[in-house]
Fold these 2 entries.
Entry 1:
Amino acid sequence: MTAEIIDGKAFAERLQAGIARGVAALKASRGIVPGLAAVLVGDNPASQVYVRNKTRQIEAAGMAGFKHDLPATTSTRTLLDLVQRLNADDAVDGILVQLPLPRGIDVEAIFDAVDPAKDVDGFHYVNAGKLAIGRDALTPCTPMGCAMLLRDRLKNLAGLSAVVLGRSNIVGKPMAQLLLRADCTVTIAHSKTRDLPAVCRGADILIAAVGRPEMVRGDWIKPGATVIDVGINRVPAADGKTRLIGDVAFAEARDVAGAITPVPGGVGPMTIACLLHNTLVACCRRRGIPLPAI
Ligand code: GUN
């Protein structure tokens, strides 16, 4: 079997075009421009690229992007003050504090301080709790993007066996909640799971979010399964440069799976599109107005 390649880039472009139409309608009908504040602390090169891409796409969709660049020496107190100013700023509908933060900053204190109504990352415990009990939450962007790709391909996920590899608060746990909400039978597997390959082989849906290059081999995959690769691992390439690979050994998996997301061009673009989506949702919910059609 040769797997269908799930084109996350094309899906994300369609979603972003819809969001841009929704933003334009909001501006025309009510004069509102949704705004995202992106906070980058320190000089992590990958984070710089991510934040630049996020603010670029926000602006391309017609929203306002406010970029805050702070030095690596920033204290927790200074960062908390900024978050509180952004909470109080009515032009800001979404607040994104890029991870990882430099050592020495109290990450929990920062994320607890973000107004849950502006928490477009969905990392605040209020949003995590709402997601867990099935209430309307701002949902973490990467799992939301994965769920959209799954729904697009499989339509009805009810009764399917889903294995989520990885138990992070950012991807693994919220991903499991979304799959449960879609009536899957969900297993969260992790570094202490016994016989990981056998657990994965039971999955109709396999989500790999471990951050270990090509850890999932072809013979870990049930024939015909849908495989979502969340990994973005930068590794040395033959030409002396670097290249991006996922958590799944793509060439092996493609021969077994029914469908698979590539890296790059799979989940990555969906994460940004979902950030735009959450910013528009936060803007409308905060003001008590309906979400425009997207
Ligand atoms: N670092 C890696 N992924 C993310 C993300 O989705 N949000 C934030 N804030 N930081 C990240």
Note: The pocket of guanine is lined by residues 96-99, 121, 141-142, 271 (CB under 6 Å).
Entry 2:
Amino acid sequence: MCRHLGWLGEPVSIASLMLDPPSGLQVQSYAPRRQKHGLMNADGWGVGFFDHGHARRWRSASPLWGDVSFASVAPALHSRCVVAAVRSATVGMPIEASASAPFSDGSWLLSHNGVVDRGVLPVSRAAESTVDSAMLAALIFDRGLDNLADTILDVGTADPSARLNIMAANGSRLVATTWGDTLSVLRRDDGVVLASEPYDDHPDWQDIPERHLVDVTGGQVSLTPLEGSS
Ligand code: GLN
């Protein structure tokens, strides 16, 4: 499983979210603390952020810890809305930059932490890669993020062993699901962080229960159980 993170709030640097925290995504790429599946996340990484309404992305098939160019530039990149991930590729999936989250339809940035049988997903020409996560992202984009809960329920029914942890944002809204892995929220004075696992030991981190949809807009965090879940 991968580890991912989303930010919605005041402009902050990408480095402050991914690289600086003591257990941030950079450290999670080789020493995650709560990872249930896989030992490390060395098969690539990606970050997407909104810049005056435009979704910008930087993705790689190499380990985050070795990217000295990104480490140099990340402190200069600032955004109100960010989706970032480090990847542990599922066996049999391609390792290439286009298989690293976040995926995008131009309006949304989306990361998938988990695994799904590609046989239950419709083939979409819009998928950026043959990796299961890109095919799932294409389906979620097709059906619309407003229908994310229903899409997760449908896919979860079609593949009961799927793990479907999503993190997605469009610049003014950040949404996530828990379906088979951990997620925590940190409400800060300047915004909200959602992350597969806390990036530090601040006491304000709260765990999100399994099979929930989290929706962050205008500083408000709402939690909804995913219906039909057992
Ligand atoms: N199945 C996806 C991939 O291979 C995501 C893997 C994960 O969550 N570790 O990239």
Note: Residues 116 and 162 are 5 Å apart (CA to CA).
